[in-house]
Write a structure and sequence with these properties.
Phosphorylase Kinase, domain 1, mainly alpha, three-stranded antiparallel beta sheet, Transferase(Phosphotransferase), domain 1
Amino acid sequence: MTALSAADWQAVEPLLDAALALPPADRPTFLDTLPPEHQRWRATLERLLQAELAAADAGFLSQPASLAGGTTGPEGGGNPPWQTGQQVGPWVLMDELGRGGMASVWRARPHSGDFQREVALKLPHSPAPGWLERLKRERDLLARLQHAGIARLYDAGVDAQGLPWLAMECVAGRDILGWCEARHASVPERVALLLQVADALQYAHSRLVLHRDIKPANVMVQDDGAVRLLDFGIARSLAAETDATALTQLGQRPMTPEYASPEQVRGEEPGIASDVYAFGVLAYRLLSGASPYAAAAPASRHALERAVLEAEPPAPSTATRDAATRKALRGDLDAIVRKALAKEPARRYATMDALAADLRRHLAGEAVLARPPSWRYRAGRVIARHRWAVGASTLAVLALVGTTGWALRAASDARQEARRSGAMVEFLTGLFNPLREAQPDTRHRDVPARQLIEDGARRVLGSLQDEPLAREQLLVDLGTLTQQLGLPELSRQLAEERVHQAERLHGTRSRAYADALLGQRDLWESAGRYADGLKAATEALAIYQALGETDPQRLALAHLTLGGFSARMHAPEAADIEHLTTAARLLQPLPGPNLLGTVYEQLLVAHLGRGEMEAAYQAGMQGVQANRAQRGADDWKTAASEDQVGQVALFTQRPAEAGTLIRHGLQVLRKAMGPDVVILARGEANLALLAMAAGQVDEARAHVAEARRITTLPANQAMAAFALTVEATALDVAQQSGDWDTLHRGCERWGRDVQAPQPALRLRLQQACAADAVHRGDLDRARALLDQARGVAQKFFAQVPARHAAIALREGEWLAAQGRRDEAAAQWRQVLRLDDPSIVTPRAQAFAQLRAAQALTADDLASAERLRAQLQRAGGSTHWTTPLGLLGTP
């Protein structure tokens, strides 16, 4: 295949990305429907797609690249296929950072553009069995992780020869051991670095990702002391029910023996406790300068694994030769590290957060939970912290009498934290052993994460009343997880209880109360409760401003909610756009993941309300790009934004792109959240509109049926906005296809008064039911519905003529039913001559009505010809069979 130039690749890459997002069976149709200006790339795209399928069939990336050692190319000899200056996709290779037998890591930069960011590019030498699944897993897991302490995934794609690549943050620095040795770092400085690692791991665990290979080589420290956690090549998702990875298929155990937990050595499935253990080994090495299994490591792998299973490591303080270090480690740090290295997972810290909290207590001179909670120890820590403020006589008393009220009060902070941590551990333990049996039933130890989270949510609603701080944190975390897992009713209950808890604990003028109010935003949106959300957001922003809040994420959420909900309740105003642009401005500098994609989605809605179709599309695509950059292409938030902008792509006469975006979005959502999550209903409704435009009536009805199935599930019945969107689409499909019985059954529930939370949705329902009333000869009811619709259009969309088009169509039908043909023709002519790409079908329907009434003029014919030409340029009969059929032949 002839090499592509940089300019050629810029043209081909977006088309290749769109094709790769489709199932292989849909790709020929995509190629068949390429616009004329892109047909020149068809043969190139076919070759690239064939190469991608061949790579997938052969397997790709069966083992990770090594950044140290390994100088041979594929199959143990020869030069690697990558060279300095070579272009790979959008990147130019600069220099090789490391090479293994099957892959290389290169420093690279973009081949064009003003923004020249260097990346670490992971490249295979050639397709090989097992590599593809590893690369996909690493890409998918990294896409979830956007944290200052984790090397970021910037992009992923396929090069011109069909070989995949990963572009990651290029971290300049040294591994954590080398960095500390070069600077002769003190024990507190080393503990501070460990805290950065712990925070990064806790974040990964909160996103249901295990690292499974924590060791010094995978922890880089930059010159400024900032830590970056690297290499998630053998990481695993906690949410997966199975882990049929390439390593497992190859008969390997994915681990570094010296840092492997006992359960990993035994071949058991690792969990969070295994990462805690590996962190303990890292801490031991970093603090003492020796391995906890120093005696066994040089002997053999078998001896090392036996030591991991059976030998109790000596205290870190006894492993160091430096007297000052020995003194610094003795006591708290010995206890913390040994707790992390406990052979039994249940005896280790339950989470990285709990371990990090003990390290912070040590640095602050407070009592650590790893040590026995005796009064003498706790009092000693209090005295050490307040050495210069406590008189000699008081010291003597405290040394002799440990049960004084003063001593107990001084230790209250430590006890409160201990109770909170204990309550969290007790809660989590109860999920696995609810009956507190001495020998818990382990037959169901592989319960899927979704069920555990659901059980945990139900449990926290009725428990932990005597531990409010632990309960408060669980309400926040479980509220987010239940929402993401498609459990809306549980999420609503948790969010409302969080508000009540914040009011009881902190009061209604507190930051926590404002946070809790805004924590209901997504629930308000899905239920169509815009007035409630607007009121609460106004209150929350006022609280933040009164407290002098500077956190950009808090302020952005308040502005997002104000602007987004206000734009849903009336004609979007400049103030609504300003709220949303303020939110975007606050979030853009942040590394993410954050709500930037959601802000752009709300800007899309606001621009739609103003009739600014192209601005709506551009805002939507900015949202998709923000979500892809922050969360990855296969995240549910990215998928939801693709689905939403897909509908706008149809309205702006981009039907092929609309289909690609919507279908990919639905595929990801089903994979991430299951087949019944309510947001899928919106995507199915969008596919119904797409199918209807293409004249595929049966397919449109099937999509409507699936959308209705989802919205009528018991768990989704509270989501009124989704249900009404599906209902409006069902009525549109019935009206456009002439299915008058179905249209009438759908409109019976409304009578003469149609209500919906969104004005645009109300208009769709009103005009469809007006068509039903006219068809059945109920002109009084039709008149009432049209008057309602006119009122909504004038109030909310006075400056958006396209929003009046469907009403004018129905008005014409009502006039024609009364024999007022000239007035009816005037209404239809008004619709036909609206040059707006979002109302293709109403304009074509207006032309058909004029033709049936024999009222066409030369100007009408010219307008129809312009519309026909637009549709031919935008995909022709492949995508626009219904409106082209109404327009007829020239």
